[in-house]
Amino acid sequence: MAPEELVLADLVDALIQERLFGFGDGVLEDGWYRVGQVSVRVRAGGALQSHRFARGPVLIAGRQASPDELISHLARDQPHVGQVATDLRTAVANAELARAAEEDLDGGAVLDPLTAERLAWARNRPFHPTARAVAGWSTEELSTYGPTRRDPLGLDWIAVRADHLRHGEGTPPAELARLLLGEAEAHRLAAETRPGFVLLPVHPWQSRHVLPREFASELDAGLILPVARGLGEFRPTASLRTLASPDPATHVKLPLGVATLGATRLLPPRYLDNGERAELALRAALASDPLLRSVVTVCDERGWVGWNGDEFADRPGQLAAQLRRYPPQARGAVPMAAFASPRLYPHGIRLPEGPLPFFRRLCHRFCLLALGFLSKGMLPEVHGQNVAVTLENGMPSLFVLRDHDTVRVHPPWLADAGIADPEYRVRQGARQSLRLDDPTELVGYFQTLGVQVNLYGIADALARSFGIAERTLWKQLRVALTEAMDLVRLPRQVSTLLLREPTWPSRHVLGPLLRSGNSPGASMPAAAGTVPNPLLC
């Protein structure tokens, strides 16, 4: 598909699934799906919805319409339609840029991690209409700072007075420069730094556009001192704010004052602290379960440092840094989101045993991961950006978890498994999205993020690339899930929720953006919906 069609496809599919503006009740006439003045060509929607976008054009009263024109026509009474329309225009422009990610594909058997990160960014979150937009960056800035950049990117460095920082229990803040720049460069910078100050990396865009505004008084008072610009060689990854260092086992995560998926890419210290607490819970689960250890490991993300201000304000999240260290057995791991890129098959990787055995094994091991953690009363954020996987002879082998700040828990199941409550720090009176009293909510995050976003994104790419019927892939998932259930001891209601209930929860993303706009904080706008249970198709 052309870039505009890619964005139209996600937009039309979201309109139909969320039943917005009459799109759940359109009329089929002469091969067109008609809703008022709008006409679009659709195909059978598969297990999750009645219809899906087939091909362009989309017409409004007989005139061809772009994605932003379509949403402006349909949602003209919604308070944030202007921002969504702008993001859709940006998404089309950025989809053009994303084609550069596909130029690296050479049909080899080994998928390079950085190439995989570019592919993961090119699709980003599957089925989200504005996924390719970066609010706050032009397409030129995305080309400069995003994962399609060909040359390494240097980071800016500042010195911050130590008594204005808070940090985790992992790698000491004083070690950041040495681990990211090497002994010689770190020693040179340290010699230029006043006693009682800590060297911190800052993304160069953040250094120029955000720090002077958000921390003007601290810069004037000498609490924050600029030290150097453009040091080191780092490669942007799919998340934009995470960069790979010359050591492939070490990434650095830095805040950015831009928004993707409706959420600002901040690093609030309380998120980093909650992530450290969650990592301890994940490691406790792995220590108690040999089967779980055989399919998944975790990155060490306990080395972090951030501005010590009001932990529930956004401002401290603009100045922070976190080290991500991959364990040795996760070498070469690639984000699962890369496998949701149709261009990967067959141009970027060979599947020696074919697409169905590949998908079946991926699903089986992924279900062991998810069910294993559910049996302990917790679930990591299992979408395709946060879960990476190693390949062995072209087949999925070991998963690795990264970004631990949204590991959700159900305390009674956690206690039954003998795992300590992480005791997350959350704003008093705020809605609890990490600590869930209802276990169906915990299972629901597997159904939505794990299956409908992650695995279905991959299934959709395989179906389009190899001409496989979607129903066949859902059957492969059902078999893989039932086999995994035979190996993991779970509360009975988990099987009922996954295999017998006629509907599953779903996540609406377009409606919340139109109604509420981008989130002022770091959480993505979303609302709950329902879809047919795809495993009953």
UniProtKB/TrEMBL annotation:
Aerobactin siderophore biosynthesis IucA/IucC-like C-terminal domain: residues covered: 373-510
Transmembrane segments: none
GO molecular function terms noted in the UniProt entry: acid-amino acid ligase activity
Pathway info: Siderophore biosynthesis
GO BP terms, alphabetized: siderophore biosynthetic process
Domain of life: Bacteria
Residues in Aerobactin siderophore biosynthesis IucA/IucC N-terminal domain copies: 122-339
Family: Belongs to the IucA/IucC family.
Name the UniProt record assigns to this protein: Siderophore synthetase component
Lineage start: Bacteria, Bacillati, Actinomycetota, Actinomycetes, Pseudonocardiales
